[in-house]
Specification:
Blueprint lengths: L1 H16 L8 H10 L7 E8 L2 E10 L2 E7 L4 H44 L12
Antiparallel strand pairs: 1-2, 2-3
């Protein structure tokens, strides 16, 4: 029972964590997010071995509670794909947020440097008369 469960989770892990490691542009990340059509949060688990094979459920957190849903054998592969899609979505959103936060901070720091460098001139300011 454990060998099957570990092997199955290994398949999901491979699909989720082998995406290219190069830095994507925010627009590319948004395009990838838009291509995800189906997703399901949670973890697919073997609940027990039956005579016809394993029985699965999907566990996730909703409204602060752990929810468990039975997954029929004919839907296991599809639910596994949907949970992998959800993990990919979460990963992409995290990457997007990181890039945008870094850009925001860099622009704010650049703006702050420009403003402070203007006020620290070596020559005294003199007022020009209108005459």
């Amino acid at each position: 029972m454990n060998d099957l469960h570990e092997g199955f989770c290994g398949i999901v892990y491979t699909n989720v964590y082998t995406w290219p490691m190069k830095q994507l542009l925010p627009a590319q990340i948004l395009q990838q997010i838009a291509q995800i059509q189906y997703m399901e949060p949670g973890k697919l688990c073997v609940i027990r071995q039956g005579t016809d094979g394993p029985y699965y459920n999907l566990q996730c957190r909703e409204d602060g509670k752990t929810r468990t849903r039975y997954v029929p054998a004919d839907q296991v592969a599809l639910v596994a794909e949907h949970t992998a899609n959800y993990q990919q979505f979460q990963n992409l959103v995290s990457q997007y947020a990181t890039i945008i936060v870094e850009q925001t901070r860099a622009e704010r720091a650049a703006g702050f440097k420009k403003k402070t460098s203007l006020s620290k001139s070596s020559s005294p300011k003199t007022r020009k008369s209108n005459n």
